[in-house]
Every structure is written in C-alpha cells, then in structure tokens.
Design brief:
heterodimer; A: 6 helices; 39% helix; B: alpha+beta; 7-stranded mixed sheet; two-stranded antiparallel ribbon; 6 helices
Chain lengths: 163, 206
C-alpha cells in the first residue's frame, strides 16, 4: 500500500513538476557587480573560450539571440558563457524574474555602473555602446569583439574561429 | 578549393563589417550633411531653416529605447535652455518601423503629442541621415555649429553621465559642449560613449 501511495506521488510529481514555473534553483547564478569586478573577471586566466554577452531584458535583439548562446554553451564544454546585464541595478528582480521565466541557465552578472563613458573603451575601443555586444576571449587572452545581433550560424562561426 | 577561398573571403568580409560600421560616419571637425526630414507636425524640417542659423543639437533617438525615453525630459530642458541662444534640438528617429513598430511615424506623432515636445521630432525613414552621420545607437548626439555656411561637428556622444537619475549627473557633456561653442572655445570633451539601443536597420536591400 505504502509503495502504491509512493508511486502515485512520484507519478503525480512527474506530471505536475514540468508544469510548474521554474524556480530560483533552476536558473543560473545572478549577481550584481561593479566595473572593477568585471574588469578583473575579463583578465582572469582560463583554459576555456570565454564569452561575455552584453544584453538587457528590454532589448529585443538581445533577447532573440540569447538562446543561441545558451545552446552553444550547453553543447560545448570548452565554452564559458556569462550574460552581462545592462538592466537597472535598482530593480534586479526584473532580471531574476526574466531568468526564471526564460529558463536562463547560464550565469548573469548585472554590471551596475551607469557612468558608461568611463568604461566602454576599456571593454573594447571599437564598441559604440550599442547592445547587444559580445566579447570572446581565447585561453591565450586574445580578444574578439562583436557589436550587434548575431544569428545562430554567425555565432557558431565565431566560436569555431576562436576555439 | 575555390569555393573554400570564396567562403573564407566572404566570412572575413562579414567579420570586418562591424568594424567598418564603427569607423564610418563623422568625426569631430567634419562637415555634416544638411537634411530635409518630415516633422511629426506634418511640415518638413531643414537645416536651412532660420532657427538653425547658428547651429543645432542633433539627437538620434526613438520612442522605444528605454535610454531614449529616460532622456526625453532632459532633451526638452536642453532645447528650452539653448534654442534661445541659437542651438535648438532636432530629434531624429532613425528606426525602421517594420523592425520596430513602436517607432513608426504614427507612434512618433502620438509620443510628441503626449510629451508636447517643444523641438522638432523628425523621421529619417530612408536612414540616409543616420548612415551619413554614423550614428550607431539611440540616443546619439551630434552638436553642429554653423561656420562659414557649413555645419561643423563639434561634439559626438552622450547627453550626460547618468541616464537613470538626472539629479545624480556629474558630467553634463552636451551642455558643456554647447557652452564652449557659444563662448567660442574648444570643446574640452568632444567625444563620449554610452550604452544605448542598437539602430533598427531596415532589412530591405541588405
């Protein structure tokens, strides 16, 4: 009898769980960082190809390309992907809600420094400041910068070139 | 082999495009093209109009970008401060309405009516002006000063250094630039960057 109840609960869970909204435990890490912190992250050593994608919840072309980045990162363990959010640091729940709703598994760091002119050139002098924008850093430290939206095939090419 | 070379060349060409896009357009000191664009009020706006006899603060902006929206009131204040001194604001929406429906001419009219913009809000439907200027995001400011009959670019960049909170701004880039131009001085900081929304380029002809 106990076994039957247990089985029923298991079965029920199997049916109900996928229907429930994603919880905080399912989404990727989220933290709010300063530019100094971000700069130190960029300069860290890594054996992986690191990809930092600048985006915001309200940016339609950014949101469109996010699944391509997530998919590439899940398929290729030699990649390390972090989404860098340009959302308002005063309302971080807008980002965490988005992550849960869209099931974002990769880490998201909200770069909370609106004095943009002080740091955009430090990320890359070619960057005009428009988002989306993406920086690729090879294990040897070489960087490639891309401003603008990427199609899935373009992202794959760029990863292929730098991997 | 041949197709492979062509493929590689195409790829290289594609990869260098964003870099080219960055370096094209005006630099400070360049002569800016004049334009004639339709205003939300139905008339056309030309840099030949007498109100721009001294100069103009050209701002590429739009309805939909949160950064642009955050600056609406400050753009009104800029216009109110400087129009009487010979440097009015012209706001230009460069976004393709097919890509960004909220930036259509009809939506521009609605926003202008809601906010009662005191400056001209015009539509760069063909995107010729933004391409010539080299604007890459909204908002993107070009301060022009009329010198010997030519519009010379004096400043390119952001409005100030805090889009979130006008009261927390510590550097008023555009105001400082216009003040310098009015006083006949060199603009100390003539190029700044800011995070902004990408231009919604037309898909036609790409």
């Amino acid at each position: 009898m106990k076994l039957l109840i247990f089985s029923c609960i298991c079965l029920l869970a199997l049916v109900i769980l996928p229907m429930m909204p994603n919880t905080a435990a399912d989404r990727g890490d989220f933290k709010i960082i300063t530019f100094e912190k971000f700069e130190s992250i960029l300069n860290e050593d890594s054996e992986k190809l690191r990809i930092y994608n600048f985006w915001a919840t309200w940016c339609a072309p950014c949101v469109k390309e996010m699944p391509y980045f997530e998919k590439a990162s899940q398929e290729n363990k030699a990649l390390e992907l972090v989404f860098i959010s340009m959302d308002d640091g005063r309302n971080p729940e807008r980002v965490t809600d988005f992550m849960e709703k869209r099931n974002i598994k990769s880490p998201v760091f909200l770069l909370d420094d609106v004095d943009y002119n002080k740091w955009i050139d430090k990320v890359n002098p070619e960057w005009s400041g428009a988002i989306p924008a993406t920086i690729f850093i090879k294990p040897d430290g070489e960087r490639h910068f891309h401003e603008g939206e990427l199609e899935e095939s373009e992202l794959k090419k760029l990863i292929g070139l730098h991997n | 082999m041949k197709t492979r070379i062509i493929f590689t060349l195409t790829l290289l060409g594609f990869l260098s495009l964003p870099i080219l896009a960055q370096t094209s357009g005006y630099q400070v000191g360049d002569e800016a093209m004049e334009f004639n664009l339709q205003n939300v009020e139905g008339s056309s706006v030309s840099l030949d109009d007498p109100e721009y006899a001294k100069g103009v603060i050209v701002i590429f902006t739009c309805n939909t970008c949160p950064y642009a929206v955050a600056y609406q009131d400050r753009m009104i204040a800029l216009h109110e401060k400087y129009a009487s001194q010979g440097y009015p604001v012209i706001a230009i929406n460069p976004n393709d309405a097919a890509v960004s429906p909220g930036d259509s001419f009809e939506e521009m009219k609605k926003r202008a009516a809601e906010k009662d913009f005191p400056y001209s809000y015009v539509y760069d439907k063909s995107q010729e002006v933004i391409k010539a200027y080299g604007g890459s995001r909204t908002p993107h400011v070009y301060l022009l000063n009329k010198e010997n009959g030519k519009f010379i670019v004096k400043y390119i960049g952001a409005i100030d250094n805090n889009h979130q909170d006008a009261s927390a701004v510590t550097e008023h880039y555009v105001e400082d630039a216009v003040d310098a131009v009015i006083q006949g001085e060199k603009v100390a900081l003539d190029n700044t960057k800011t995070i902004g929304c990408s231009i919604k380029w037309s898909k036609k002809g790409e």
